[in-house]
Amino acid sequence: MLENGYYWRNRELRKHVSVIDGLDKPDLLLTNAVYLNAYTKEWISANIWIVDDRIVYVGEKLPANTEDIETMDCAGKYLVPGYIEPHAHPFQLYNPEQLANHVAQTGTTTLVNDNILWLLLLKKKKAFSLINELQKHPVSMYWWARFDAQTELKDDTQLFNTQEILSWIKHPAVVQGGELTSWPDLLAGDDRLLHWIQETKRQGKPIEGHLPGASEKTLTKMKLLGVNADHESMTGEDVIRRLRLGYQVGLRYSSIRPDLPQLLEELLAMNLKSYDNLTMTTDGATPGFYEDGMMNVCIEIAIEKGVPIEEAYMMASYNAAKHLSLEEQLGSIAPGRIANINILSDKDNPHPESVLAKGQWIVKDHSSQEISNVVNWEEYGIGKLTYDWELTENELQFSVPIGLDMVNDVIIKPYAIDTDIATEQLPETKKDAFLLLLDRKGKWRVNTTIRGFTDRLGGMASSYSTTGDFIFIGKNKADIILAGNRLKELGGGIVIVHEGEILLEIPLTLSGTMYDGNMRDLIEKEKQLKTILKEYGYPFSDPVYSIFFLSSTHLPHIRITQQGIVDVKKKAVLFPATMC
């Protein structure tokens, strides 16, 4: 068994060798298999021997004694490496364990995760204990170390300082630095950021950029400063430009940017010769986007668009493992690798009928197997929110002249408020709604309006946000207060109210951010959320991301943050937060 999720003990390594010598027996045999070899990109017939969580042999031979060994005859089947999601944000209403349980059913057996929530919620010792606990899950979970918060915090030096960052990048479960949303600061001369990048590279770990719309000049500068990869390409030309400069390029298929089909069409039209430096990512999509799985869906799109079948599987397995220096553990079916294997009915059907993760059956002959929970969230202080204040009319005082105007799901521009906002209810003839960002501890608030989110909804309250502070949106102050009171009773979540009636509750009882329940149930709740908000005037596709990104200063043009209303480009606080 992997020690702490990362290495095998010496005695285990000796046992693995003794199995080859016939002195011990494997635990599982996959016989008569045709598997994809990641090194020659061939489909080869073989028998595969597995001991505990490790592949120990791939070849023509069988053990001399097969008695009492679990055996699956894979005749007529095709085996590929377990799929890897190299860029997961495992907190989009769901929690990391819940997401892993769900996507493993369709063959994604490795997640490389954002660590931002652990920075916000936990002290470093607790956070490291938690990610070590998650290594006991059959899905392989790795992490990246954030260098910035994607928003303006009251005091970001508590979370982002050299001692904290270096501790994270040295952890064996952390396999890269980034994603680097604060790259403009790096270009502007932030030597602290540059130091963190250099130290990450000294650990042999790559840096993930966040470079939407970057020019060749900017991409070149970032490459010189140490950035290895980027997933923000929006056109085939963007992809080719990055590849030619030596970037590992992630092709995105997310709920907010489902670009993968278009990118592949353009790359194929440009006669792309090599796929070795391409991966695919769903980039932290919202729950309903994962109804049919994760990387299996990306592979299906790639095959349908005409990507060679072998390359499609490599983009979702070996290419990511090699980039992250995990190829000796993951991404291939070969001796010494973790036994993450998907068994397919056909080469061109990436939806597995059986899934092995760390040698454990997740799905066997189309039948899902039970996965035991490994995390007791209460041990880490992650549970229902409790607070000793209530939302009142005092917090719902609006007077600033500038509001937030939604251009699409996540792009927001400033606008001059021309509606009387010193009222109890805003008129339905206007698209303005009250917008309040309120400190979790009730100590400060930011009051303004938002235009384009709803034209008539009474009130919505959410503890789900970039920073974990509370967001309130609505036309009617009484409905907003009712939603806020119900949110407090739930211990966190999203509550929608109209004309004094609660229309929907999504309890997020893990620190007000994550759902503690079945992913299928959460998907249905998110569908209800979208349906209700669209009925009340939400015009875009992904309200969950609209809510989440209200404070995210890596997006243009104006945001509502802990410091106040911020002009992103100028990095200026236009209207500071008010003390309660």
UniProtKB/TrEMBL annotation:
InterPro entries (alphabetical): Adenine_deam_C, Amidohydro-rel, Metal-dep_hydrolase_composite, Metal_Hydrolase
Domain Adenine deaminase C-terminal per the UniProt entry, residue ranges: 430-571
GO molecular function: adenine deaminase activity
Domain Amidohydrolase-related intervals: 78-361
Any Pfam family hit: Amidohydro_1
The EC number(s) this enzyme carries: 3.5.4.2
UniProt entry tagged with the keyword DNA damage: no
Catalytic activity: adenine + H2O + H(+) = hypoxanthine + NH4(+)
Keywords, alphabetical: Hydrolase
Family label: Belongs to the metallo-dependent hydrolases superfamily. Adenine deaminase family.
Name under which the protein is recorded: adenine deaminase
Organismal lineage: Bacteria, Bacillati, Bacillota, Bacilli, Bacillales
